[in-house]
Amino acid sequence: MNFFCxxxxxxxxxxxALAALALPARAAxxxxxxxxxxxxxxxxxxxxxxxxxDGTTFDLGAALSEKPTILIFYRGGWCPFCNRELGxxxxxxxxxxxxxxxxxxxxxxxxxGLAPTAEKNHIAYRLxxxxxxxxxxxxxxxxxxxxxxQKKYAxxxxxxxPVPGEPDAVWLPVPTAYVIGRDRVIRFAFSNPDFKVRIxxxxxxxxxTAAAR
Length: 213
What we know:
The chain contains seven helices and ten strands. By secondary structure, it is of the alpha+beta class.
C-alpha cells in the first residue's frame, strides 16, 4: 500500500472517529423499568435527532438550546395514563409559556400516530416520534419489555417499538418528566417505573417556577 492510500485511509479513520464522538452515547438498555437509570438533576440533556409528525428529522438538542423546556417521555397515544398526562399538560401550557417554557413530548409512536394524539387531547405543544428510542436510550429511560407484557400488548393490537437487531424484543420508555434550562442542564426530574404514576401538572409547574428563579 503506497503513501497516498495510507493517507486517505488515515483521513477516513479520523473522520469516522470524529463522527462517532459527535453522536450521543447510547445508554445500555435496562432489563426492566425498575432498573432503568434516567438522567438526574445536574446532567446535561443529550442532543439527539428524532422525528416530527410530518416524518422530517428534528434536532432535539437545538430545540432545547432555544428556550427552557418541559421534556416529557410517554409510552404512546394508546396509553390512557399518557393521554391523561398529555391533556393535563395542555391545560397548563399557558402557565408554562408565561414562565418562558416550551413543552416537548416524545413517545414510541410513529410520526403518523402523533397528530391523532394531539387532536384527541387538544394539544398545541410539540409531539415527537422516538420510535427508534434514540432519545429514550440517551436519557436512560429505555427498558426491555418482558415477554408476558409483550404478548399482552400484542393481544390489544399495540405494536411496540422493536429493539434494533433483536427482532423478537421490544422496548418502552419509563414515563419521565424533565425541567431543562436553556443551557440544557436538567433542573428537575421525575420518573417512576410504575407507568400509572405521573407527576401532576401543578407540581411540575411548581418545579419549573423554582427552576426559573
